[in-house]
Amino acid sequence: MATKEIRVGLIGYGFMGKAHSNAYRKVNQFFDVDYRPVLKCLCARTPEKAGAFAQRWGYEFVETDWRKLIARDDIDLVDIAVPNNLHKDIAVAAAARGKWVVCEKPLAMNAEQGRLMVEAVQKAGVPNMVWFNYRRVPAIALARQIIDEGRIGRAFHYRATYLQDWTINANLQQGGQTLWRLDAAAAGSGVTGDLLAHSIDTAMWLNGPITEVAAATETFVKERTHAESGKMQPVGIDDACMFLARFENGSMGTFESTRYARGRKNSNTFELNGSDGSVHFNLEDPQWLDFFEYAQKQSGMKVEDHLAGWRRIHVTNTEHPYMDHWWVPGCTIGYEHTFINALADFLKGVQTGQAAQPDFQSALRTQYVCDTVLKAARNHTWEQVPQV
């Protein structure tokens, strides 16, 4: 039974605020960890909306200035779930006050800000994590296990797509509380930081560091009305991005992301092809992992021709990652559970002293790839990714 309270201060109450709050409320019901999150304080700019959110989820107090939240003595953990342009200042200030810091992805507006965040948490020696929750999808975690077991062999190709369609409407505004992701001043980039950051984090977790990229981006709607000024302004984010990559292990990668794929709501896929097998995953069918086995690990023998072919693994057995904490085999879990899994890993890491990943340092590596992709697109050249 959890014996140590960890008092949570959440900054932001949007989509991710809900996902994180749910994780704090549920983690002790399903995982045995020493810490028990207490929803202590919510911070948001609009008092009425913040108050309603706090009442719904059970936060005890409301602040409208994040500086006041991190100054509170009754806050142990600061959770950053606000637009990207605020991540750095909040994280640096929270770490300086000795708070644990967890942050939504991407880590920052750019790698320069991300480096300052890493320095701050390392100097303070505080636990930290970035919510790259897709690592905690059981099927993706099983893919990692299969790779670690040597069942893929030498990696040759990695390909990923992340497709949505919600910004096709040219009449959408940019900026404000709802559409800040379309405003470069708040988001830093478009699909590269918002969607491909997920794809890049997953790719490097499964297949190792990305060392070199070539890229192209496109902004299909060049101007949008800004929600706050009411004026028509240029759009500075990328609506679509595609890039080629080389990995440190010698394999090649292709990545594509867009918010202009009509009919695709949150299509996040990857496939890794190796000498002995392949894995394929689609987030829109998340309980399944597709696995092709060419060489059997134990015997080293080729799979007999009449048995060769892709198999679909229904990742719900107690032997599969995380599933022993959930339901009986055959019963699936959903998107919200990935945040609970992530929080459980984070709290367990604090408990054992083995920091859960991705921490800020790991997320900075992804940020460097994102920055280099945008640089390659601007320069129309292959660019080397800084390694940290």
| Overall morphology | globular
Lateral strand order in the biggest sheet: 16-15-14-13-7-12-11-8-17
The secondary-structure element order is EHEHEHEHEHEHEHHEEEEEEEEEHHE
Q: Provide the β-strand percentage band.
A: 25-35%
Q: How is the main sheet built?
A: 9 strands, mixed
CATH architecture descriptor of the largest domain: 2-Layer Sandwich
Distance between the termini: 38 Å
Structure description:
The protein has 388 residues and is an alpha/beta fold. The chain has two domains: 4-133, NAD(P)-binding Rossmann-like Domain (Rossmann fold, 3-Layer(aba) Sandwich); 136-383, Dihydrodipicolinate Reductase, domain 2 (2-Layer Sandwich). It is built from ten helices and 17 strands. The protein has helices at residues 15-30, 47-57, 66-71, 87-96, 111-124, 138-148, 184-187, 191-207, 335-352, 360-379, and strands spanning 4-11, 35-43, 61-63, 77-80, 100-103, 128-130, 155-163, 210-218, 223-225, 232-234, 240-247, 252-258, 267-274, 277-282, 288-293, 310-314, 383-384. The longest helix has 20 residues, at 360-379. The chain starts with a strand and ends with a strand. The model has no long low-confidence stretch (mean pLDDT 96).
Characterize this entry briefly.
This protein has 388 residues and is of the alpha/beta class. 33% of the residues lie in helices and 25% in strands.
From the structure above, extract its key features.
single chain; 388 residues; alpha/beta; Rossmann fold; Dihydrodipicolinate Reductase, domain 2; 2 domains; nine-stranded mixed β-sheet; six-stranded parallel β-sheet; 10 helices; 17 strands; 33% helix; 25% strand
